[in-house]
Amino acid sequence: MPTKYEKFAAAIKEADPARDRAVKMKYQGIHPDEDFRKLWPLAIGKDTSGGDVVLCYQYAGPGFDTTIDHVSLKHLRCFKLEKMANADVTTIVFNQATEGFTPPYLNFKQLKKQTCIDDVDLNRQKP
Asked: What was the pLDDT predicted at 59?
C-alpha cells in the first residue's frame, strides 16, 4: 500500500488530466476533521525540523472559505503528513468542469517565497 508521501507525490507528478491529480484527506490538527478536505497538491518536501510537509491549494472541505474567490492564494494550506492517517488520504481525479475552476500552479518566485517547505523534494509543473 502506498504511503501518504507517495500518494501526494503521485498526484503532483501526474500530467494526464483524466488521472488522479488531486487528494482528499482528513487532517488531525487541533480540531480533527470529520469531513474530507479536497486538495490540489503543489509541492512536497521537508519542513525546518525535517518532517514531511505538503503545500496544497484547498478547494473544498473543512477550513475552506467560500467567500474568497477560487484561485486565490489565500486557499494555500501547509499540512504535516504526520497528522494524517494513511487510510484517510486518497488520490482523486480533479475535473475542471465539475469543480468550476482551473487549479493554480506556483511559479519559481512563488515557490521560493513560500514558508511551508524548507527543502522542496517535488513541485507540480504546469503542463
From this structure: 93
